[in-house]
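**Tokenised fold:**
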Amino acid sequence: MAMSGMRQAAVGLGMIERTPPDAVLKEGVPALLREVPEHRRTAFIELAHWGYGATAGVLFGLVPERLRRSRLTGPVYGVLSWGMFEFAVAPALGLAHAQRARPRERFALLVDHVFFGFIIGAPPEVLIASPENTDEEGHRKSDGANEGEPTQET
């Protein structure tokens, strides 16, 4: 959803002509969009994008935990998801924007995917916990119950 806000700003600033979810549903799978009443299509497109992003977030959860702990893993994952769409999905669906050079638009989409990666990735905050119960990385010392889970005290 945060990425959608960035995307709308980029559209409003003229950096993106047509959002990828809009292009996919209008060009790639138009029969699906025809089933949606016209007055609900904008909401349907946005919800489809949120569903796609939620799926990507779930798939990120399958990345091994030791990799997910790195602050860079999320942004790298975001770049990979952007690249997958730009260089595999869009051409496979025959989307018009995949057929032309559009560096400013591609850059704007890359930036919002990096942002997506920061959101799903490891938080940059330092965990605050009592020193006697945590190791040097801020993880709870093993009591056998929740081994490896970070702890936060508020």
Q: What stands out?
A: The chain has a mean pLDDT of 81.
